[in-house]
Specification:
0% of the residues lie in helices and 52% in strands. It is mainly β. The strands form two sheets. Strands 2-3-9-5-6 form a five-stranded antiparallel β-sheet, with no helix packed on it.
Length: 80
């Protein structure tokens, strides 16, 4: 956990941390579609997937975002 935030990755994959790479500040390239999980001590104001604002589910500081299309990389960005 760095600055109250930690990406977890695609929960459908065995090694979740291998499913993304840091792309910029609060921005990650996710190598496939599916459900992306992350931990955050504070609720994000918004989450963007490929430039479009999306909804997210949360429970006890764990969050889940559906990235959509499988076999396609996506850019996910968090606004705090």
């Amino acid at each position: 956990v760095e600055n109250g935030f930690a990406p977890i990755g695609l929960i459908e994959k065995y090694v979740t941390s291998a499913t993304y790479e840091k792309f910029g500040k609060n921005k990650y390239k996710v190598l496939n579609g599916g459900n992306f999980a992350f931990y955050s001590e504070s609720k994000p104001k918004s989450v963007y997937v490929d430039g479009e604002q999306v909804s997210f589910d949360s429970k006890d500081n764990f969050y889940l975002v559906n990235l959509g299309k499988i076999n396609t990389s996506h850019i996910i960005e968090f606004d705090f």
